[in-house]
Write a structure and sequence with these properties.
two-stranded parallel ribbon; about 100 residues; about 35% helix; alpha+beta
Length: about 100
């Protein structure tokens, strides 16, 4: 199967997912997190992802953040969280609904 063999070959530009985390689940506007901004949650998750695998944030090639119905599309909040987490402003970021 030449097609399968070609797919399984390693390349320098392969996408590598080193970790995946999510925030705590809570009821909206209730409980211990009611005064916590979404950017604070996301910054903690982003920092935990790269520190748990001992990755220098300058080597992060791309960030994809998924959230439901973010205000203004969510890109600004996600970018603020990434910057707060110590990820360089040059790192591409996309939000997904």
């Amino acid at each position: 199967m030449p097609g399968k063999a070609a797919l399984l070959q390693k390349h320098d530009d392969d996408v590598v997912i080193v970790s995946a985390l999510r925030t705590a689940i809570t009821r909206g506007k209730k409980g211990g997190f009611k005064d916590t901004q979404p950017e604070e949650f996301l910054a903690a998750v982003l920092k935990a992802v790269y520190t748990s695998v001992k990755l220098d944030p300058k080597y992060i090639g791309d960030i994809a953040v998924g959230n439901v119905l973010p205000a203004g599309g969510g890109a600004a909040a996600a970018r603020m969280a990434a910057l707060y987490a110590g990820i360089p402003h040059t790192t591409p970021l996309v939000t997904l609904n």
